Amino acid sequence: MIKVGIVGYGTIGKRVADAVKLQDDMELVGVTVNSFNYRVLAAAHKKIPLFAIADKQPFLDNGIKIAGTMHDLLEQCKVVVDCTPKKVGVANKAVYQNYPIKAIYQGGEKEHVGDTSFVAQANYDKALGKKHVRVVSCNTTGLSRTLHALDKMFGVESCRATLIRRAADSNDTDTGPINAIVPDMKMPSHHGPDVNTVLPHINIVTNAVIVPTTLMHVHAVQIYLKSPASREDVLELFKHEPRIRLISGKAKLDSTAAIMEEAKDLNLWHHDMMDVCIWDECLYVKGNEVSLFQAVHQESIVVPENIDAIRAVMEVCGKEESISKTNKTLGLVD
Amino acid sequence: MIKVGIVGYGTIGKRVADAVKLQDDMELVGVTVNSFNYRVLAAAHKKIPLFAIADKQPFLDNGIKIAGTMHDLLEQCKVVVDCTPKKVGVANKAVYQNYPIKAIYQGGEKEHVGDTSFVAQANYDKALGKKHVRVVSCNTTGLSRTLHALDKMFGVESCRATLIRRAADSNDTDTGPINAIVPDMKMPSHHGPDVNTVLPHINIVTNAVIVPTTLMHVHAVQIYLKSPASREDVLELFKHEPRIRLISGKAKLDSTAAIMEEAKDLNLWHHDMMDVCIWDECLYVKGNEVSLFQAVHQESIVVPENIDAIRAVMEVCGKEESISKTNKTLGLVD
């Protein structure tokens, strides 16, 4: 059993904690909590041991039991998954290095926090036995899954993508815009270089805009293949690739809202869409050129990646076995 | 004096009417009105003669004077500008053909409503003396201006663009989405072929999404030039091209909301942004490849095009003179 601790209990941390609990080769030692809120109440309700980052009094005042400090948590685990906001993870690295543990970070941190960046399908083996591994961001994960699949089959010459980013997560009431399209003034955007931390050989340039929605990101992706393909070839490839889901406008899955509603209707784990969703009708293939729209659920797409990263750093099994186990427990289709 | 009638008094019609009134070589005979609303009240306040499409009683009941019928309007004018919703324009064409008048249609109609499609900078001469001319849609106008400028200077080999479309105009409370990104299930989208009605020789493929905002469209445009250029070359070109405006994120013009606020702060005509706006910081040029973001004010970008189309069909002057006159009267920079 791999003893796992989670530091940071927000959008990602709470999901990774629940996902760890479902693995038969992992044990959730507990999670850190920083301030009293409804997520902490839910964790206490689920009987997840809570370790206070700082003062435990606010939790006690609200009837929440505290199992110890972050130090106590780190002493008891073999792997820590850092799910803190960006820049906190890299600061925590200095702490983690005082313990005989492996650490997994999120994509908000810069590349060099990890010995490697990680997307299970694309480069699981790179993380085998590593001490520090960075699971890349939701956008980079989505792009890497799709590009890796195409690259494996046809070779990817180059990629140009526009990321149409959701402005805020569903529970976030402090972030805008509420009526504007906001281009990323960094051109090219950081997403292309970030894909290169996983797939270093692909020529990729990205740009991004933020739009007033909370549900999912959408990527408009233009890919030039090394060898020509047909639309049928590419559909067939995506149909059989794990963690890529072909969705159909004909079935009225014609918006990010419809996708997230379908995740509820199918009673998917946590009502999340952890697959990158590619629209069948929007796939255009002509010779070496592929154009597609894909949707990425920013809150959950990296959850299976974190689980696989835990197995990779602990070297308990290979890529196929880990992906298959994770998929099975989280209800993803192989 | 060119006697002009406007059929359809909505978002475009009301602006074209005001713009016609500013031209020293045109006279606004009047506009048609279909139902009583605040736009009609404003038109009456401006003393624009109103011609009722159908029953005039609802207007009289509200104290609005009616000058006659649509037949009366068409009898008095030399050019009719049809600003009705899509499919109504093509139906009206059968009516216009009974009068010795020229007719200008909007981009909601299909290509064949006109003897030519029209964007002043790109193909003014094609419309000279024509009986039926179609001013293309806002998106096509914006793409055509930018592509024509680049094509003139460097040659455009091909273009791939993603259109991030505003969901509704500012006054429209009946249209969604309010929290979703909605891809256009028609892939490629109709915008590429529509650009080809103006610039037939350019290899262009487009796709589109709709996002929950009302202010402007944003285009992510990828262009491959026939000859290489530098970023400075392209900036210099855009700086001197009429109806293209370079905007700067450094000046905090970093969203569609900021652009429309600036249109108010500069007291631009009707507080509209009739230029296609290209972000300086987002312009990426490397060899033959150009990538840019541009914003299009869907409510107004075609207004100067309609004015130029009137002069073209009446053959009263050449392209440069018409563009210059229109720009001067509408406060656009040459």
Identify the strand order in the major beta sheet of chain A.
4-3-2-1-5-6-8-7
Kindly report how far apart the N and C termini of chain A lie.
Answer: 24 Å
Round the Cα radius of gyration of chain A to an integer and report it: 20 Å
Count of DSSP H/I helices of chain A: 12
Relative helix content of chain A: 25-40%
Essential attributes:
homodimer; 334 residues; alpha/beta; eight-stranded parallel sheet; eight-stranded mixed sheet; 16 strands; 25% strand
Protein architecture, described:
The structure is a homodimer of 334-residue chains. In chain A, the strands form two sheets. Chain A has an eight-stranded parallel β-sheet with strand order 4-3-2-1-5-6-8-7, with helices on both faces. In chain A, strands 9, 10, 11, 12, 13, 14, 15 and 16 form an eight-stranded mixed β-sheet that branches. In chain A, 33% of the residues lie in helices and 25% in strands. Chain A has 334 residues and is α/β, with parallel strands linked by helices. The first copy, chain A, is globular.
Write a concise synopsis of the structure shown:
The structure is a homodimer of 334-residue chains. Chain A is 33% helix and 25% strand.
